[in-house]
Amino acid sequence: MFTGIVEELGEVTAVENLGDASRFRLRGPVVTDGAKHGDSIAVNGVCLTVVEHEGDEFTADVMAETLNRSGLGALGVGSRVNLERPTAVGDRLGGHIVQGHVDGTGAVLERKPSENWEIIKISLPADLARYVVEKGSITVDGISLTVVEAGPDFFTVSLIPTTLALTTLGLKQAGDPVNLEVDIVAKYVERLLTTTRGAAQ
Predict the structure, then answer these.
(1) Global pTM?
(2) What are phi and psi of 196, to 5 degrees?
(3) 42, 52, 71, 173: least buried by Cβ within 10 Å?
(4) Distance CA 10, CA 78 (A)
(5) Distance CA 180, CA 3 (A)
(6) Using 50, 70 and 90 to split pLDDT, how confident is the model at 151?
(7) What confidence score (pLDDT) does residue 152 get?
């Protein structure tokens, strides 16, 4: 489990095509500290498994399903990525519960800078819109954010200077893809209500 509090801005240093998968090599001195084979690290919100670890770099295999359902397939050498290690039992939950299982992708529609923060508008797939509510939580490229406005096919988030400086959202431009993970609690509630209604009929 993750919390959506990005630990560092890493970088893709190599991408190897494996046919029905890709092997990524990524640099991140913070998240690789103490890392070992089999550990999990979230890359732009996608939970990946460490295959190899050497120095401040690690490799992870990404299967076709993940490449197709997330924005990882668009990454290349030099791409910057948000990195986070799983939360430890007893740690503070600074963001919200994040699984690292991307529900879909959106795209940056526009940016509206102001003196002390910036509003970013992001497209929202129709099948995810019902899980997104104003002042609720959503994960964008692995970043736990609060929804400012929730529309039928978009949402907006307000970013403070720290988020802009330390995550990929400070670099994204209109048209750039982002990974989205909606609040898992909303999905469980929907499932329970659907099951309950079905049993009552």
Answers:
(1) 0.90
(2) -65, -45
(3) 173
(4) 9
(5) 14
(6) very high
(7) 94
Cβ burial, residue 116 (10 Å; 0-12/13-18/19+): exposed
HSE at residue 174, side-chain half, CA atoms within 13 A, is 6
User: What SS3 string covers 125-151?
Assistant: CHHHHHHCCCCCEEEECCEEEEEEEEC
CA–CA gap between residue 148 and residue 46 (Å, rounded): 24
Which residue has tokens 């400086």? Answer: 165
Please report, rounded to a whole number, the percentage of residues in the chain having pLDDT higher than 70: 97
The label of the residue with tokens 């508008």 reads 121
Over 60: is that where the pLDDT of 191 sits? Answer: yes
**Token digits for 4?**
């959506």
DSSP letters along the chain, please? -B-S---EEEEEEEEEE-SSEEEEEEE-TTTTTT--TT-EEEETTEEEEEEEEETTEEEEEEEHHHHHHSGGGG--TT-EEEEEPPPPTTS---S--B-S---EEEEEEEEEE-SS-EEEEEE--GGGGGG--TT-EEEETTEEEEEEEE-SSEEEEEE-HHHHHHSGGGT--TT-EEEEEE-HHHHHHHHHHHHHHHHH-
Q: How far apart are CA 192 and CA 43, in angstroms?
A: 30
Tally of residues, the chain: 201
Q: Tell me the two tokens of residue 161.
A: 């200077």
Amino acid code (one letter) for 131: Y
Q: Assess contact for 175 and 108: CB atoms under 8 A.
A: yes
